[in-house]
Amino acid sequence: MTGLGLMVALASCGDAGAGRYVGDYITQTDFDNLAGWGADVNALTREHAHSGRFATVVNTTREYSLTYRLPLREASVHALRAVEIDAWVFLPSSKASASLNVQVQPVSGVSGDALYNEELHLLDQVQEFGKWTPIHRVFVLPTRLPAEAELRIFLWRASSPEPVYLDDLRVKARE
User: Fold this and answer.
1) Helix (H, G, I), strand (E, B) or coil at 143
2) What's the whole-number average pLDDT of the chain?
């Protein structure tokens, strides 16, 4: 199946609790526009990029990629029931065990665990290695999250002994 065919097939696998896509992109980036804007340059790499010149990376010296952070009230004009993520990942082999994480954290300064924490284990969606592969997932959020809580999206190395790359990230709001 081609990459486009795979994305269409995966997109048709919806979750009834996820609401509908409302046309709001929370964010979309190819990471090229972040260079020079104070982003952690160690989390950007030119080694591999799906499009443009940069991607974000995790490796044995970098546990987390660049992290997207935004209060829920600023993420969408609608109450979020879910976030839908499309991106491209590059895994060199089946040993590259990283995950894409979506979290909702309480307001800064408030101690406690995440209000929501879900991982997409990349090896669950990638069967061919050494090439860019599209990924897709709808993350259904719990109801009644506080508007000031912070949405976070990042790549986590976990126990991967090899570098893992993420590029062309798109995050849609679902109401």
Assistant:
1) coil
2) 81
Q: Which residues of 77-87 are buried (b: 16+ CB within 10 A; e: fewer)?
A: eeebbbbbbbb
User: b/e string for 49-68 if b means 16 or more Cβ within 10 A?
Assistant: bbeeebbbbbbeebebbbeb
97 pLDDT more than 50: yes
Domain that holds residue 119: 3-174
| Rounded-to-integer distance, Cα 77 and Cα 70, Å | 13
Domain count, the chain: 1
Q: Residue 45's domain is classified under what CATH number?
A: 2.60.120.260
In the structure, what pLDDT confidence band is assigned to residue 42 with cuts at 50, 70 and 90?
low
The token pair at 153 is 């999206």
The token duo for 127 is 């069967």
In the numeric block, the tokens 């004009």 are attached to: 77
Confidence tier at 7 by pLDDT (50, 70, 90): very low
Asked if residue 153 lies in contact with residue 99, where contact means CB atoms within 8 angstroms, the answer is no
